[in-house]
Structures are given as C-alpha cells and as structure tokens.
C-alpha cells in the first residue's frame, strides 16, 4: 500500500531522554514531489477549465475589451452610453469601466456560443452527394471555422453543441412501418399498422409532450435513460452480452517480450489519461470542422461498474495512482507513480516481469474470483454485499474497483498467424471472454497481454461506445510503436530502476459458498447489403437488422439504430437469388438499396432515427402507467442480426499507406439474440475489410464460420455486378472460397 510505503519514512524510538525521530529523506522527497505534482495538475486543470469555459473567446480577449474601454474613457467617449455612471455611482470610473467591460465580454462569449450552436444545428451537408458540396454548405463551413476559434481543447465545444431534437411522432411511426414492411406478410403488417395508428391517435401526444419537456430540461433526452435501462438495469451477464473487444495490430508485433509490451502500452495509456484529465486532446471534428461530443471520454479511466440487486451503477473516481494485475490466479497491486511522476516504460516492464517470475500459488477461491463479474448480476451483487463489505476482502476489492484499469497477463499466446486457420477465432474468443475468470468484466476496460507480445482490450459498454475506446487505442498503438519503441533485444528503452517497491499481492478470505458462484459456462452500404444477402442465404429468411450509428454531433449524444433490412434491400437480395434477373437489373436495385441505406444512416445521425425516440416514449409510458400494445411489441422485437462498424484512423497518427502492416484488426461483440449473429467490421483503407462474427453454441442453426463464408461469397457476387465474371481477382478469390480457405 502507498500509505504503508510512505510510513516507512517516519521511525521513532522511545529513549530515557525523550523520543528520537528518524526521517527518510527519499520518502520525504517523494511526498514533496507528489504534492508539487498534484498542485501542478490542479493548476493546469483550472487553466484549461477557464479556457474551455470562455471558448471560443480567450482570457486575453477580456484584457483587450478592458483596455479598449479604458482608452475610450481617456478620449472622453463613453461606449456604454452612460451605463457605467448609472450602474455604479459610488465607485471610481476605472472600476466601473472594468466591470462593464467584463460584462460586455461575457455577453460576447455567450453570443459567439449561441451563434456557433445555431450554425452546428444545420445538417444539410450530411445529405449532399459524396464528393459534392453546395455553395451554401461552403459558406456555412467557412462560418463554422470562423466561430470555432484557433486552438480548441477537448471540451471547448461542449456548450456550443446543439441538443438532440425530438422527432415528430408521425415521422417516427412512418419510418418504423417502412422498416418492418419487408419482414411482415400482409396480415401481419396490417395488424401492426392498426396498432401504430391507434398509438398515434390516442396515446402518443401525451407521451410526446413529456419527452419534449425533458429535451428542454436535460442536455440529451435519450442518453441517461439509454445508459440506465439498456445497460445498468440488465440483470443478465455482461460478458459476451454487453462487453466488446478490440484487437492489436494485425500484422505487426513490435516486441515478443510480454512484460516489455505491457510496459510500453501501460505508459502510453497513462500519457493519454494525463492529456485527457487536462483536456488537452484535440476534439474530434467531422470534415475537420464539425465538432463531436466528448462527454463519454470523461469516464474512460478510474471507472468500474458496481453490481446492484435491481440496477448497477457506474463509479468514476479521479486521479487513481495504481493498477491491478491478474496473472495465473493471483491479483497484484502495482503503483504507477514514483517521485511525483509516472513510472517509465522500463520501470513498468520491471514490475510486470516480477509478477511473471512470481511462483506463489493462488489463495483459496482466488483463481476464479473474477468469474463473479462474468455471471448474472444479482448473485454477484448479493455476494458483494455479504462477503466483500468488510475486512481484507473489502480492501482488496476496493483496490480493484478504484484502479486506473485492470491488466491481465495471460499465459497462452494469441494473435493472427497465417499458418493457423483458426488463429483469429481463438484470439477473438480470448478477448471476448477468455476463461471467464481471468478478466474483470466490470472495469471500464481490461488490458490483456499475451506471452508472445500481442495485446488487446475487453471493454465494459455502459460508460461509452466503441469509438471512444478506439480513439484511445489508436493513440496507444501509435505511441507504443513510433514514439516509445524498444531496444534491439525487445526491452523497453530507458534505465532499469531496481529500487521500486515490489508489486503487492491482494489478500482474500473467500468462503466456499462464494467459490460455488460462477457463470455457466458507401462502403458501409455495400457491406450492409452483403450482410443481408449472406443472412438470407444462411437462414433462408430476412430478419430485423441492427446497425449502430453515432449521434455525437449533439451534446451527450451516443448512438441510434439504422434498420438495415429495408424493402429496397429485400428486393435486391431476391434479384440476386433470381436466376432470371440480369446483372443490369441487380445493379440498379443495388444502387437503389444503397441510396436508401445511406439516407437512413444520415437521418439517424441527425436526430431523426426511429428506435431511440420509440424507446423514450416507452419509458415515459411506463412512468405514466400508459399501456401501449404498439410500444410493447416494438421493444420486444428480436435483433437477430446485430452489426456495427468500428471507426478507423480517428487520430491520423499513422499513415497506413506508408505503414501498411501497422493496421488494427478492429474488435467485436457477442450476438444480441440467442439464435442470431453479432457482426463487427472495420474498413481499413482501400484494400482490407476485417469481420468479427459471433454466435452462440447453444443454437444449432447458426455457425460463425459458415456465415463468414456466406459474407465472402455475397461480397464477391456484388463485386461481380461491377466487374466482369472473368476478372482475375474475383476468380482467384472464388477459388480460395471453394478450397475452404478462410479470409475473414
């Protein structure tokens, strides 16, 4: 413990002539440096808070306004039109001028913010054809740049982002009925139409009024309910069902030394966290100009999902200085600071190597303790209250839940190996669930390090969406490979500090009854249409399809659903399976379906989606005790095909054209429905698309490998509409598929 370590610096001996105190200069120095670092951090946070608070103005602009006001008084011009004299009769003219200038400056700040918010409320640019930009959009873009300031910090735009609008009930119901039309026969559709119209005519208006009221009061009318009811109130396991994973670089492994790779990566994460806490990361901006909401990034570190009987909570702490490491059934606490600074990569490597070299055995019940976080939430919540609320168990659990994040040093190598057919499958399963007891699934994320130098992440989903973790991951991988680097022997660069305190074993007293609690065991449009074709070939029917879209152009925005199985997509798939249809007909239907998909995606991004509005109307109906058969049916429909695209190159730290081997494989998640598929994909440049496909062993009708083969065939068939059948690349890829070689 840090407190115990520091206490060694103070020793005293009772002697006949009094008490003899001895002070350790090294510890006193560390305490002093820690205090200085803490005050520096507070000062930087205060400075950046001021900069973000007055953005898009700057503190220096206040001085300019004051000087201009004072100068005008000396030449006997009163720009306040007498307001200075009228407001403050008893104060001197200088103070009156300063106060008026400050008020004017604050007024101008709010005027700039409001003007920028109005500009950012325009979304016409999203609906323009790719590569084309109208004159009005060019003018709008210039105005946004002008009002955005020069050097914005991470949270500078938060107060200027518009609020997510509440769509009209008529629009939402119309889009919903349009989305389910290809999935229902005439009788089913007519029944659904009756339910929808009944809801619209008799119940929707009351619910909509409350929703509009909430949109005026809260910064986002969806996000808090989405987090609570979709994530935190779920009582089923979060492993596989909610958590997602992200892989390492696909082709490159910068070092094969496990401790060294973990040392560099953890140090890069600490650098990222420091910039995050200070707000020094540049805000993400579409088109390089339109800002995205950064709220989700606040809880990336020092965060844990705490289980409850009825609902979980997300606990976020500040400035955590330690890490908890799991290796071969033992939990270790590692301090991340020394002398008021982060541990260097070489120092972290030393600490992790000490853990790898430790041959001690797990305590009774310690090996599979983390399985509690993988199972149903209620048993875990009850066990936490009964067995982890006092004594050494509470101290050790607090160490895990208050850690910056969780690190697992695995003992089995993983990663992409061209010589092994199922290497990526094994890697994905390891990241998604591991052994079910060697990941702490409640932490905001678990960093997983493998003996061959590969790494990956398993992330809890309630606190943020995948692009947020992906942003951090891009920074970490680029920093690891291109800034920190390794020695020729594969070790971290820098001197080795052997005087660091040893990692501390966490202590447990686990009763046998706890040990028994464990779990049972436009390119986008192209891909989405290929998925529809693959789904039909795999299952013989169309199904309700979920595609995730972001709404981060609005304050506190998270996601919206794009319903990819449209009537246009169904018509295209049927044409692909119709031997009498010509390629020209198929291509025309493909373009029509792709245009429809893109328009739906744009509507979702601009606040005109279907599902979040219906979800919030349902929540209001439950509060008011209003029974709606329509909303019940909508919210109970299963998503048998759940899909998501992982964003790539958010930071542009690595030129993948120049360094093609430094590309990531993306990440994945489990299926939403027991008899469905979960499909995550990442588009890497012009020549690579990676897919992560999951399904449950318990369902005999689904098979990830088979579905992957169907995706490959579907993409090649669609590609064949644009290229002749004898195209060399198409022919070669078809041969690979026929030979059973797996490329997804």
From TrEMBL:
Enzyme type, top EC level: transferase
Chief place of localization: mitochondrion
Active-site residues annotated for this sequence: 461 (proton acceptor)
Superkingdom of origin organism: Eukaryota
Segments traversing the membrane: 60-77, 89-112
Pfam families: Carn_acyltransf, CPT_N
Name of the protein this chain belongs to: Carnitine O-palmitoyltransferase 1, muscle isoform
Taxonomic path: Eukaryota, Metazoa, Chordata, Craniata, Vertebrata
